[in-house]
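Attaching the record inline, Q. Sequence:
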Amino acid sequence: MARPQRNTQPELIDAIADVFRSEGYEGASLTKLSAATGLRRASLYHRFEGGKEQMAEEALAVTLKQMDEQVLAKLRGLGTPKEKLDAAGKALLTFYDGGSESCLINLFGTPNDLPDGLTRGVQALVSALITAIAQVLEDAGVSEDEARTRSLRAVALLQGALVLSSAFGDAAPFRAMMTSWAEELLPAPTRPERPLAPEPQQTEAVPQVETPAPKHDVRAAVAAHLKGLKRP
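Structure, as predicted:
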């Protein structure tokens, strides 16, 4: 069943982008694009004289703009590195509809399927996210090389979690990954070293003084002995 006709250009682009995300560039046939927009093929070509490639380019341009305004702006904004990453994480959850949307890498299918302009556009989109995250990490005191490595890993985990969510038809992998996304990016907080406890001072041993044994009372012993002899 065809969807209601989309009249405004933004509505058309949103509908077209949904088809490319779900079907890939090669799978997004004019029949599917027509059904999604509610426009006939002739009307689509009238709106997009460059055909499917122009539709994909405009859909990608809108996606780039959304990523910049919704996610990258949070990373460039004010706040501590932790606050920026937390805000970007929430924005990513919204951007990917909680994990139900396709990852950016699969936005239009594999690079081999795409015209060069689209390939470069997808690469620019992913690179912009990596660079923005790395800059926040550098602001947190992470070295440039380490920040780049952590940022690459974070984006790879993000995209991989989206692929898993898509494969299982369940957003749980993406949501689980995002719960600790910011914490795993940032370096562990430096804990102040505990001062070493002073070693117990050895006290000089008190010389043991032998207590002299009480002197044997010879007279008492003799008296007791004599007393015993006097018994009847």
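The domain at 58-185 is CATH 1.10.357.10 (Tetracycline Repressor; domain 2). The chain has a mean pLDDT of 81.

More tomorrow.
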